[in-house]
């Protein structure tokens, strides 16, 4: 599976979820996911499985790989279980051999602290292979396992209040990036570009668990220049996923 991003509408979402969560309505099938992306003008993106996050790691990861066969514009992002570092390393090996280039890390959901040896170990495995880590949670504590490794990281929950800390990290870590999902407030996206540069931001929505359209609209209606919008919309993702 080769990754060549070609988004006809110019938006590639780094943070998509297939399936659903107990207690939440609207479990998303592959066809429903594609329809929701179309309605928001999103051409494709990195998709992780809620099934893998909640109860069936291998089956869920295989589910998003199968999705990519049906919808080539949707690229699988494997989920890792930090509580089983040896098994997670084997899952990285298995999926990477099939062309998967991004892996979702969820320390808070799995109740794994940033200081856990498993997190540092898997950060090193991903970095050594040149794979992208999609990291959920507070970047102010989750940055430590990835520094000094030339790691490719997208912090999915970066907020405007985190920009100062992220700026300091980005000075020494060219592979550190942030998703735009939490940057939908007034001028927050513009502030992020001013502080970090457009080359450090990837469009992300956490859809369809969250509404996709407002995040897309916020980018299109921003005061950013067209070249900055292109970088955030898809070009930065294309660069990160390049072999």
What labels describe this entry?
single chain, 243 residues, alpha/beta, TIM Barrel, 8-stranded parallel beta sheet, 15% strand, disordered N terminus, Metal_Hydrolase, hydrolase, hydrolase activity, Putative TIM-barrel fold metal-dependent hydrolase
What would your notes on this structure say?
This protein has 243 residues and is an alpha/beta fold. It has one domain (12-241): TIM Barrel (Alpha-Beta Barrel). It is 42% helix and 15% strand. It is built from ten helices and eight strands. The chain has helices at 30-39, 50-54, 57-70, 85-97, 117-128, 139-142, 163-172, 188-196, 213-220, 226-241, and strands at residues 12-18, 44-49, 74-79, 102-105, 132-135, 152-155, 176-179, 201-202. Strands 1-2-3-4-5-6-7-8 form an eight-stranded parallel beta sheet, sandwiched between helices. Helix 7 packs parallel to helix 8. Residues 1-9 have low confidence and may be disordered.
Mean pLDDT equals 88
Number of discrete domains: 1
Structural class based on helices, strands and sheet pairing:
alpha/beta
Number of strands: 8
The profile of the biggest β sheet is: 8 strands, parallel
What is the CATH C-level name? Alpha Beta
For CATH, the homologous superfamily is named as Metal-dependent hydrolases
Low-confidence stretches: 1-9
Kindly report the CATH topology. Answer: TIM Barrel
What portion of residues belong to β-strands? 15-25%
> For the largest beta sheet, what order do the strands appear in spatially?
1-2-3-4-5-6-7-8
Order of helices and strands: EHEHHEHEHEHEHEHEHH
How many distinct helices? 10
Tell me, what's the shape?
A: globular
Head-to-tail CA distance between termini:
12 Å
CATH architecture: Alpha-Beta Barrel
What is the share of helical residues? 40-55%
What does the radius of gyration come to? 16 Å
């Amino acid at each position: 599976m080769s990754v060549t991003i070609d988004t006809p509408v110019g938006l590639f979402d780094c943070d998509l979820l297939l399936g659903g969560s107990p207690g939440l309505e609207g479990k998303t099938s592959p066809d429903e996911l594609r329809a929701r992306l179309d309605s928001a003008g999103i051409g494709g993106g990195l998709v992780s499985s809620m099934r893998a996050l909640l109860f069936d790691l291998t089956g869920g990861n295989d589910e998003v790989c199968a999705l990519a066969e049906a919808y080539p514009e949707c690229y699988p992002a494997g989920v890792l279980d930090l509580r089983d570092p040896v098994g997670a390393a084997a899952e990285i090996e298995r999926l990477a051999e099939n062309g998967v280039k991004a892996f979702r890390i969820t320390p808070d959901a799995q109740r794994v602290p940033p200081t856990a040896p498993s997190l540092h170990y898997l950060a090193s495995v991903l970095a050594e292979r040149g794979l992208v880590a999609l990291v959920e949670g507070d970047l102010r504590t989750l940055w430590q396992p990835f520094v000094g490794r030339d790691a490719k990281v997208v912090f999915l929950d970066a907020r405007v209040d985190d920009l100062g800390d992220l700026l300091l990290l980005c000075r020494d870590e060219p592979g550190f990036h942030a998703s735009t999902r939490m940057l939908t407030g007034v001028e927050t996206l513009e502030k992020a570009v001013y502080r970090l540069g457009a080359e450090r931001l990837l469009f992300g929505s956490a859809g369809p668990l969250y509404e996709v359209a407002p995040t897309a609209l916020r980018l299109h209606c921003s005061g950013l220049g067209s070249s900055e919008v292109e970088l955030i919309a898809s070009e930065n993702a294309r660069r990160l996923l390049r072999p």
